[in-house]
Every structure is written in structure tokens, then in C-alpha cells.
């Protein structure tokens, strides 16, 4: 189990190294997301229908909808500024989303509305990408081996579940947010929102299984404030 | 039977538009149907090229396709959904707008009134309307290529609930699928109007002396086809209405409760997917005969002309046609042996399916027996008629395997089925169309086609179709599933070289059809002038000029005193025409 | 030209038939208890159809060879009617084909009935098979021998709750074993119940000589006995959407001891 977990962590860490960030002036809000209660057990993913993907994972992979770590840390929670910004800057960095070994990497990608998103298929076979959007227009496209990457943007804030129908276990999220200030928690549950001007903000943590929680954070100058979130977990 | 209704007469129209476009003249309408089928067949063939190319080399980009279909084939690589969309459009275009439109509506319209000695169809305005409605149906179908979500992908059979639930079921299930259902609905209207006209004209407008026993075989076949079409399309039409309602009005005729599609519980309950299958195949199997019976008629008319000998067993032939028409309504369940319907009914549907091979086998033997003792003249028309017999035998016999539930367990849903129906209703019907084209082109356009090009066209096509479709039986025996856009299963890997062979054969045979297209266009403009009766044939169309005048017989209706195929008379003129005294 | 036609038709007929006869491409091995009867029915049909195919093509070829005009010269030879007229054709077709139909139906319907019209033997291993766009999942009852109820509103691929189980409230569901391949014991009758959660699919294992549609809104039973251990492929034969071509699962036929062990290991891992 530990070996399995480490592989998973190693895999995801390697694949989800964020683009190098510039030191931005302004305040930082950082903290941890943890849970109380009993989280669901991670289930092994049976990829046997796609032997290509089985061989890419020397140890079996487990579900990523509720990844927790030591100290009840919660991975893949999205923490973002939900309200309080005087002016919203437009993020222009490209967000990269990969399909590799029949997994979405990263499992959750946070992005701003109108921010360019590029989806790659790194596998030697076809996938279909089906963002189950309700507010934004839903689409569903195959990306065969050799096809160019899919470039797109989203116009409305929405947490969009993403699935591959060809490999029904493939499941991820696009967290499309109004703000440019967002982060996805790492394996220790930590996050940090940088470059914030002074003001009073509503900071929200969202997780696909454990729900949402918000708190107010007031920033006076160039400081680092801490904000921690405790979400509620249920076994089923 | 000397009942002769008052012929419908209308003065020849004066304006160019009324003469050549919005014409009520059955000859113009017949040519319009054939022109539509020509556009449709080359469209359908182009789609099959793309499909076959993809099956042979799935990862290779098709140059230029990325620009034409930026969603379906980004960068020119055909996606799985685009493959299925091409397949669905190929099947729909070919079955409805080629195999129904050309041999039945096209040739039937041009020739049936002349062959019975009438000046036009019984209802010329309805006739004109049925063509324009068919064209509308075609345009609606083609429009599906240009909608955002892409054309439909649920096959020409459009099985519910895939075709009924809408976008959650994946690409191609949006407005493209709705357009498909609307197109087929419109097509049904056109065919019902057309069928009524064919029946009324055959029964009421026969000229003096044209008893049923003297009716040419092609007209017999068109008449019986019209009777089949009247019932078959009358069932498909409401089925399409229900499908459209399920898609746009939220009804649940074909959608049961509790479906979860792409993780979404569907808001439907109470419908039955099998209801669609029953309605569709109640139409769908007779449709096979709608496609092929006109070919039977055309071959039975052409073979005696070039064999210089009457058809063997004319009454047997007509009896068999009637038997096939009747049995065609009792066999639809053989498409559904494994569909979850009561397994007891499988035997019930299997028996008439096997029995229908008896009249089909008799007709085949009549053709072969007609060649016996003949003075056979081999022209492009007669070669295609003989080729028809050969491919019909090949396609018909594989039906034995699919008619039996026990062997269908293994072969259902494989390439064996693809081989079977392409031979028996695709290739055979196309050979009937080719034979009819080479035979009647001089009458239709007053010019001869090139026989040299026609013969090259025959030889290359004949060998080509066997190279394409015979190996598909072998694929089916090896368990190769149909409607797959790529072969990823381990057990299918050894079959990929055979698929590449078929692809090469298909590209070749498709290219050969350009010879036909060239011959058609060139002969229409520059072919040598055709005499009235270039083939020394006997039916009424050969008694009038090439092309016939507006009222077909120049003001006086012919009087018939002979059968349709009196060949082999002693003396220098070895035939007696129907209009001869 | 007539001779060319005759030769072409003859060559096509003989080559096509030879490839069938030599089994150059043929059915894979049969690993089912009932498959032998399907294969022999198919073989018998093949022989009959093959004879009729070659005979009809050769007759056509021969008559065209014999009775076509040569070199475009008009023949003056009098035509000959077929001996006996159409009657022999009717008799030949009716009797030959008619007898064949009787035989095929009589034997074939027994084969069909043995697969589809008989209930599964008592004690057959019960397995639920769920089809969805575009995968198959199999469910075993687990140590309690009971299947948990299926709730469409709980079906969720993201949490791998493919069958819509409700372990929070339904204790029989907690030990249900759900896997992405179909694992069965050899020489033991297996009864599947076929469910689909979305559109129509089909269950086809060529080696098992079995095929059956999954129909939305219906639960369809299907039973068979596998007779050889090994790994085979279960594929979908009913067009179900873009991933149809890739909708498959492996079928693993294990010895009865290995199967019991496998089932135990699965239960322990829950």
C-alpha cells in the first residue's frame, strides 16, 4: 500500500510541476487543507482493457477522487479567491493537461476563465475528452494518436468534471475560476496564493468529494497570512 | 384486360425552367432522380474511401481533410467518431439516395409510363413533387455535415436509445442525428407519393392491348417494388416521427427508465429500444427488396434482348416476384435474433427467411437457363446483367448463414454481414443500375455511350468488387466485428494485412468508376446519335424516337399485340416488337 | 469476350471457394461446451452453400462460353430453349433448397435451443455483467453470496461505482467484487445477467461461440460452460458510440482451484 501510494505521488508530482512562477509583489495567503471524519478507501483501478496503460504502471494505480495523506491532509483541493478583488487580472499562461497512462495529469487543473488550456494525448492510442460542463458549452472529442493537441478556453466559472468514455475510470476536473489567484493543494495538503494587493478576501477551498468551505482573510500590506481549511469526509 | 383510362395530357411547356427543372414530364423527373443518385453515389463512395483508408492506415493523416473537417479529423487524422459519422452517412446515402432512388424512382419514372404506353404518370404534379421532396431530404441529410456537433454516428439503422437520447451519448448525437431523422421522414413522404404514382400508372394507364401478361418484366418489378415501398415506408415514417419526438420533445418511446449516460441519469422512462428495432426492420428488410427487385426486372428485360431469346419462365418469374414481396414482410426478425427478443420467435423468423431463398433461387436459375441456347451478344449492358447474376449468387448464398439463428450466433455483427449485404443489395443493385444505364442511355439522351469504355468499366469493376467483398467473408469467419474504426483487439491484429488488401482494392475499384463518370458526361455531349432501337429490342420505349417526344409517342398511343420478349424469330429480323401489328 | 467472362467467373469462383475450403482464415478455437454443434452447423451450411455457389457460377460461365457470339459476328444459329422449360428450374430449386431448409432448420433450431431456450443448469455460477460506454464490468456476489441492489442514481464512474451500489445502506453490497475483466472457472456452468447502463451493446466472445445484445431496460440471462483455460477477448458488436471499436474486456478462464483462489484474494482486498 505504501509502495503504491509513493508511486502515485511520485507520478503525479513529476507530472504536475507547475510552470516557474515569477516572484510577484504583494501579499501571500498560504495554509493547509485537511479533513475530519472517515474518507473513502482508495480503490485500485482496473485498466486491464487497455494493456498499453497497464504496462505503464508497474504497480496498480488507485482512484484519485479522495487522495489523503499523513496528518489528514487533502490533496487536489482547489483554494481560490472567491470574492473581494477590486480588479481581476487576466491570466495568460497556458494551462497544460495531459492524458498519460490512462490517467489525467494533473487530476485537477485550476484555471481562469478565458485562460488558454491545451490538452495533450501522450498515449499510443486514442482517448476522448468529455468535459461534463453544464454552464459552459459541453463538448466531447476524440484525440487519436498523432492528432494535434486540443486548444480551448472556458468562458464561465465552473467546476467541470472531465471524463474519458473509452476508459471510464479516467476522471479529472477543470476548476474554471473568475480569479487569477488559485492553487491546487499538493500531497501535503498545502497551498499558497501569491501577489495579492491589500483588501478583504473570501478564500474558498473546494474538493470534489469533501465539499466547500470559505473564510474571510484581510490583508493590510505585503505580508504572508495563513488560512487553514478542515473539510468533512464521509466513507461512502 | 383492355381497360384503358383516359390518358393524362398536358401541353409541352415553353419556358426553359418548366421544361428542364420544374418539369412534370416523367422523363425529366426520371433523369433528375438519376442525376441526384449520381451525385449521391459519388459522395457515398468518397466517404467509403476515407473509411477504408482509415481502416488500412489508422494513424496516417489524410492530406487536406484537416481543413475540411477540423473537428472530426484535426490535422487530417480521422477520429473514431468521424469514422462512424462517415460510415453512417455512407450507409444512409447509399441505401436511400442511391439504391432506392436510382433503380426504382429513377429508371422507373423514365421508363414505366413509356413501357405501358402512357403519355405520363397518373399524377404528374405529385410525381414532380416527389422528386423535389426527395431532393429536400437529401439536402437536409447533407446539412448534417455542417452542424456544430457533426453528422450522426449511430449507423443507417439508428438504433435507439443511442440515436434517441441526445448529446450525452457522445459526438454526433446532437442536431446531426435530428437532421438525419427529419431527412428520412421527408424521404418517406417522397417514396409514398412515388409508389402511389407507380401503382396507379401501371394499373390504370396501360395502353390498348397491354395486358398484364404483356407487361415488360422491368415494369412488373417496378410495380411490385412500389407495392412493397407503400407498406414499408408507411411504417418507417411514423417511426421517424417518434424518434424525432424522443429527441426534441422529451418523449420516451424508445428510451427506458434508469439510463445513466456519461454519469448522468436520463430523464426518461417507459420506452422500448426493441420497438425501434421492430419498426425499423419491418421497413428495413423490405427495403432490401426495394433496392434489388428493380435490378431483377432490369436484368430480366436486358438478358433476353442480348440473348436474342425470350426469358425462361416469364410467369414463374412474376410469381416469384410476388412471392418475394409477400415473404419480405415476414422475415424482419432475422435482424434481431440476438436482440433480446423472445428466443422462440427466432425459429419463426428463420423459416420464412430460408423459404424466401426458393423464389430467389428459381429466378437465378431462370436467368442462367435463358443464357442456355442463346445467341448471346456481349455489350456493356449485357455484361453487367450477367455480372449481376454472378454477384447476386455470391451474395445470396451467404444469406444461408445469417438466416439461421444457430450460425448467426457467431456471425452476427461481423464483416460476414457486411460482405453479404454489400454483395446482395449493394453491388448487385449497382450492377443493375449500370446495366440499365448502358441499355437505356441512348433512349434517354439520344446518344450512344462508348462501348469500349463501358467494357473496361465492367471488367475492372467486376474483378474489383470481388476483391473487396469476398475477403470480408473471411474476416467475418475470423470474428472481425463490423463498425470498428480501428482494430485494437489482440485477435484482430493478424487480420490487418487483409484489411489493407481490401482498402487497396476499394480505392482501385472506386477510381475505376471515374471511367463510367467520364463516359456518361462525354456521351451526353458528344456521343454518336442514337437510332430509335439500337439494341433491336421489343418493348414500347424502342418504338418511339430517341429521346422520346414530350408525350412519348408523338400524339398516337401505340396498340400492343405482342409479348415483351419475342426474340429468336426466324429470318433476318429476329424479333417482333410489342407495337408491331 | 464470352470466353473471357467464363474464365474470369470460373477463376473467381474457384479461388474464393478454395480459400474457404482451406480455412486460410477461419474460426478461432472453440472453448465452449456448445460450440461444437454451432461449428458443425456452420460447416454443413458451408458445404451446401459452397456447392451451390460453385455450381451456379460454373453453369453461368459455361453457358456464356458456349452460347456467346464470337468476334462481334452475328450468329445465325437458331436459338434453343432450355430443355423442359422452366419446370426443371422450379423443381430443382424447390427440392434442393427446400430439403436443405428443412435439414438446416431441424438441426439448427436444436442447436439454437440448446443455447438460448434452456435454463442454466442448477448451481451455475452467477455473474452480473455491466456494459457501459465503453467498457465491461463483472460483478461477483462476494462471501455473503448476495448481490447488492443496483441504483442508477448512484452510478458514478468517477468513484468507480459502476453498478450503482449503496454500501452505506445496503450491507449485501459491501462485499460485492467488481472487476474490469470476466474471470470464470473452467468446466463449470456460468450464468451471466447482462445489464447496460446507457445504450445498446453486445457480448461477443468468438472462442466461446456466443453473442448476445445488452438491451437498455432489460436484464438478459446468458449461460455457457467454458472448456479450456486461457485468456480470450470479450468485445462489443453493437454500435454504441465513438469508443465502440475499443470496448472490450479480457475473459480469463481459470482452473477451478485457481478461480476459487482468485475470488478469495479479491474478497480479501476489499
Task: Describe the 3D structure.
Chain A is mainly beta and 236 residues long. Chain A has helices at 2-15, 51-56; strands at 27-37, 68-69, 73-74, 78-83, 95-100, 103-105, 108-112, 117-121, 127-131, 141-143, 150-152, 158-163, 171-177, 182-184, 190-196, 199-207, 211-219, 224-226, 229-233. In chain A, the strands form 5 sheets. Chain A has a 5-stranded mixed β-sheet, with no helix packed on it. With 581 residues, chain B is mainly α. Helix content of chain B is 61%, strand content 1%. Chain B has 16 helices and 4 strands. In chain B, α4 runs antiparallel to α7 (217-248) and α9 packs antiparallel against α11 (357-371). Chain B starts with 15 loop residues before the first helix and ends in a 5-residue tail after the last strand. Chain C contains 5 helices and 10 strands. Chain C has helices at 2-21, 35-67, 87-116, 171-174, 256-269; strands at residues 125-132, 135-140, 177-179, 182-185, 189-196, 201-205, 210-214, 220-225, 230-235, 248-254. A 5-stranded mixed β-sheet of chain C has the order 3-2-1-5-8. Chain C starts with a helix and ends with a helix. The mean pLDDT of chain C is 94. The chains are: A mainly beta (236), B mainly alpha (581), C alpha+beta (270). The interface between A and C is medium-sized, with 28 and 24 residues.
- Based on CA atoms alone, the radius of gyration of chain B comes out at 24 Å
Largest interface: B-C, 112 and 104 residues
On the 0 to 100 scale, the average pLDDT of chain B is 94
- Sheet with the most strands of chain B? 2 strands, antiparallel
Low-confidence stretches of chain B: none
Shape of chain B: globular
DSSP helical segment count of chain B: 16
Question: What's the structural blueprint in terms of helices and strands?
Answer:
The complex is a heterotrimer of chains A (236), B (581) and C (270).
Chain A: H1 2-15, E1 27-37, H2 51-56, E2 68-69, E3 73-74, E4 78-83, E5 95-100, E6 103-105, E7 108-112, E8 117-121, E9 127-131, E10 141-143, E11 150-152, E12 158-163, E13 171-177, E14 182-184, E15 190-196, E16 199-207, E17 211-219, E18 224-226, E19 229-233
Parallel strand pairs in A: 1-18, 1-19, 5-8, 7-13
Antiparallel strand pairs in A: 1-15, 2-3, 4-14, 4-16, 5-6, 8-11, 9-10, 9-12, 12-13, 16-17
Chain B: H1 16-20, H2 26-56, H3 65-68, H4 80-115, H5 124-143, H6 175-204, H7 217-248, E1 260-261, E2 264-265, H8 273-307, H9 314-327, H10 344-355, H11 357-371, H12 380-403, H13 405-411, H14 415-445, H15 451-477, H16 496-526, E3 566-567, E4 575-576
Antiparallel strand pairs in B: 1-2, 3-4
Helix pairs in contact in B: 2-4, 2-5, 2-16, 4-6, 4-7, 4-8, 4-14, 5-6, 6-7, 7-8, 7-9, 8-11, 8-12, 8-14, 9-11, 11-12, 12-14, 12-15, 14-15, 15-16
Chain C: H1 2-21, H2 35-67, H3 87-116, E1 125-132, E2 135-140, H4 171-174, E3 177-179, E4 182-185, E5 189-196, E6 201-205, E7 210-214, E8 220-225, E9 230-235, E10 248-254, H5 256-269
Parallel strand pairs in C: 1-5, 4-10
Antiparallel strand pairs in C: 1-2, 2-3, 5-8, 6-7, 9-10
Helix pairs in contact in C: 1-2, 2-3
